[in-house]
Structure formats: structure tokens, C-alpha cells
């Protein structure tokens, strides 16, 4: 009896449906746990999918806002460049007209114009039957600075009209001693623009 007292708590593995050793139960539990973990890693949980969807939405919205901002900045830059090019061209035409002033009177009054005069140097590359002098006049119609011109002697006929500048508030031509003309343009996009033009000796 004493010889078997030490081993009375040890169970012997039996065949069939008998009791198994605790180590076998541990191994089976570990095998089942690994199988469950493997099955879980094969897909995503609903929470993980929702988090990924939220992140994707935020990133897409941020990219959309950034793209819209870049496109708007590009449009503003292009519009500013267009207005600047138009202003430079208008100032160049006015300057070239005044530098070519000739001491001739005009046959029609200049009451409807800001400035009206005769200028020379009218190019004639096609050798048309006309002289190289023309009558030039400036006027504001609406908010646009317009340039009307005629061949000398043909001022009774409708003028040729050229649009120089958009969004003009006012234009002033100020004779300055000894032989100069100050041109002051007030524009919506660039404010006040001044230009001093020297009139050459006749």
C-alpha cells in the first residue's frame, strides 16, 4: 500500500475514450489557438475596414483641395499676366503716337475726345494709296480706352477703332515744358500708371 501511495494521483493514458494526459490537452489547445489565429489573419475586421475608409477619404479630400488651390492660383497668375501685357502694349502705342506728333491742325473738333492730334510715321508696308500721316484720337467708352484714327483729310468718314485697354477709370494727357507730355492712366487692376513722353523737335 505505501508503495502505491505516491502514484495514486497519476492517471494512466488509456486507449479509446479514456482519460488523456494533461500534456496532450495542452498541445491540442495550442493547435486550435494557432488555427484560429491563422483564420483571423486571412481577412480584415469591420473596424479595420472603417478606419481605412476614413483615412482614404481624408487623404482624397486633402488632395482635391490642394489641386483646386493650385488651379486657382494658376488662373489668377495667367489673368494678371494678360492684364499686364495689355497695359504695356497700350502704353507703348500711346508713347509711339505722341513721339510722332506733327504740327498740323485737325479738321474736326476734339470735344468728344481726350486728345486729338496729327502724327507722322504711319507705316505703309503694302504701298497703299495714302500718306504716312494720320489723325489720332483717344476716348473712354464704357470702361475701355479706345484709339480712333483716320487718314489725313478723311476725318469726316467713320474712324478706324482700336481697343487699347480694359477697365480704365480715367486718362489724362498733361503737356509739360519744354516739350513733353505726361500720360496718367487710372486702371482697375494696376491703379495709377504714369508715363512721361518726350516730344521731339519738328
Task: Describe this protein's structure.
- With 202 residues, this protein is α+β, with helices and mostly antiparallel strands.
- It is 39% helix and 27% strand.
- The chain has 3 helices and 8 strands, in the order H-H-H-E-E-E-E-E-E-E-E.
- The strands form 2 sheets. It has a 5-stranded antiparallel beta sheet, covered by helices on one side. The chain has a 3-stranded antiparallel beta sheet with strand order 6-7-8, covered by helices on one side.
- The longest helix has 54 residues, at 46-99.
Protein structure class: alpha+beta
Helix content: 25-40%
The poorly predicted ranges are 1-18
Strand content: 25-35%
Number of strands: 8
Task: Give the topology.
Layout (H helix, E strand, L loop, with lengths): L1 H4 L16 H20 L4 H54 L1 E2 L12 E5 L14 E8 L2 E8 L8 E6 L2 E9 L3 E8 L3 E8 L4
Antiparallel strand pairs: 1-2, 2-3, 3-4, 4-5, 6-7, 7-8
